[in-house]
Amino acid sequence: MGKLSLTGGARLVGTVRSSGSKNSTLAIMAGALLGKGRTVQHNVPEIGDVRTMMDMLRALGVGCEELSQGVVSIDATDIENTEAPYELVKKMRASFCVLGPLLARRGYAKVAMPGGCDIGARPIDLHVKGIQALGAVVNIEHGFVEAEGDGLRGAQIYFNLPSAGATQHIMATACLAQGVTTIHNAAMEPEVVELCNLLTKMGANIRGAGTPTVRIEGVKELHGTEFEVVPDRMEAGTFAVATTMTMGDVTVENIRPDHIEPFVLKLREVGAIVDMYDNAMRVRCNARPMATDITTMPHPGFPTDLQQPFAAMLSIAQGVSIVTENVYERRFKYVNEIGRMGADIKQDGRTAVITGTAKLLGAPVTAPDLRGGAALICAGLAAEGQTDISGTEHVERGYENLTYKLCQLGAQIVSNPNDIERESILV
Ligand code: EPZ
What we know:
CATH architecture of the largest domain: Alpha-beta prism
Mean pLDDT: 95
Structural class: alpha/beta
Distance between the termini: 27 Å
Radius of gyration: 21 Å
Bound molecules: ligand EPZ
Number of helices: 14
CATH superfamily of the largest domain: Enolpyruvate transferase domain
Number of domains: 2
Strand order of the largest sheet: 22-23-1-24
Strand content: 25-35%
Largest sheet: 4 strands, mixed
Shape: elongated
């Protein structure tokens, strides 16, 4: 089990560079399966989930290799195997989205029901509805989803809610269906737009990505391409929260301002000074943050993946804040852990009432999931004393070199404190 030992109190100061987006990378790796050729991705983050997806593609008999740091080549000219192994799919929900591309390319796919962070039920009914609408016969039993159908056909598909994953999954699959597919009530996340950009470069015909209505005109074949992964908006937001909590002054480079606007507007409400540039933002805070309310929503609402770090910041804010989590029903698992540090958070269902306290006190805590772990790290950086966080393997799934980057900004962190080697860099 991964462990971090943080000594709180240091202001974060300096410059840090966001890595490529985890969520965009994973969608693009699945989308590359549609191309009869080689797709090379640049700015790919070196994180656990990407390694899992690479293993998944290799298990399908697809060429997949890291050409150099952050550069991954996927050659899907031939797809030998149409069954995605359970031990990989259970590790990461995004791997489920290989089902549609396998079906579109080979007429058959068998993929285990997805796993990933325990933040809610996370059903796949919209994914299945879309695959069935495109003409496949879907059978779900023994924990596997089996889809069969030669010659997918375009369809009108309505999503009861704007699911990012289902939108990406069906948009990609429909590229090789005969005729026109229209997805109504589609998700508008930046990762949907980025996947559309990749597929378009591969020869797809898609209109409306980033709006509630996406229209895909199927083509016979897609080819490989080269693609640059966008910066990770959740990583950038996490650095901005940590900077605000430690009253620091950090410039986050390699960002897409248009992707994090909802978050930045809320960050300014707590008193942070945020200067936006073409592909960077400077975050400063010289006073205890002020309380504000956040309500997570599908894009362009406040992103659910930044709810936990933001709530950690509100736990030391002046005043009472209300956090409403509308996307996942179990995304407050960090509340008990941060409560051990003195945070006053009363959670009831999808709402948490946070009464800000002047300071948190370091304590031993356990990361419950990826973003909850990031929240605890932010809390430990601002807390008085030492915070020992276990379960940080969750965090390593989705943040590239987070400890190293924070230490470069002045954080006092030791990875796996029981080991001999130390990773803290005293700046
Ligand atoms: C993606 O998950 C991201 N993961 C999530 O980030 C992110 O929180 C989420 O989108 C929302 O933006 C990846 O891209 C790998 P959804 P996804 O389908 O696609 C319900 C992180 O921390 N739903 O938009 O699974 C679902 O239960 C992760 O990086 C159905 O009901 O999210 C949830 O309540 C966490 N039926 C809501 O929709 C379905 O068939 C939003 O889910 C699909 C989803």
